[in-house]
Design brief:
Elements lengths: L30 H16 L12 E5 L3 H13 L3 E5 L2 H9 L6 E4 L8 H9 L9 E5 L6 H4 L3 E4 L4 H11 L3
Parallel strand pairs: 1-2, 1-3, 3-4, 4-5
């Protein structure tokens, strides 16, 4: 994998609520639960598995139009030692990939403007330089099957942080 341009965000994860990772809307996720979840995020992030000095950090791409979800995942993955490439829609993600960025895995939503996740998956599958990159769908779209989408896994929102981190570790052979 090539290093992500721009590097990881410098904003610490603690500066934002990560309730968005566990809820499709704020209305369905009361603030007391968001606070409890933020504590769980902190606990997971502080149990970081550090890389040896000089070791190359695995690179993950996050593609989601929801700023809270995208930034929360970016922060949590960065805390765990990953380099992160973030994109707000499929077109932006595809452009970065076509410019030579090569993540070790891609985590994407399906319902996005401009180019949705289904269209991005189709573009990746049709490109021999990109079709080998493992993909994980994080979505509220019910009934999606990993084998039908040709992805490693489909996780339904709200997601469990441990499951997302476990998949990142497995797909990057950490």
């Amino acid at each position: 994998a090539q290093p992500a341009s721009g590097g990881a965000r410098s904003t610490p994860w603690r500066s934002r609520s990560h309730g968005a990772l566990c809820a499709s809307t704020r209305k369905s996720f009361p603030s007391s639960e968001r606070v409890a979840y933020a504590g769980a995020v902190g606990q997971a992030a502080t149990s970081d598995q550090s890389f040896a000095a000089g070791a190359q950090r695995p690179v993950l791409m996050i593609v989601d139009d929801d700023d809270e979800i995208r930034e929360a995942l970016e922060d949590v993955f960065s805390e765990r030692g990953y380099s992160v490439i973030a994109a707000r829609d499929g077109r932006q993600a595809l452009a970065r990939l076509e410019q030579g960025e090569r993540p070790d895995a891609i985590f994407l939503d399906l319902w996005m403007p401009v180019m949705n996740g289904w269209q991005l998956l189709e573009a990746l599958s049709g490109n021999p330089e990109l079709n080998h990159i493992p993909r994980v769908v994080l979505t509220a779209a019910r009934g999606q099957k990993a084998r039908d989408l040709n992805v490693a896994e489909v996780l339904m929102k709200p997601v469990r942080l441990e499951q997302v981190l476990g998949l990142a570790e497995r797909l990057t052979a950490r």
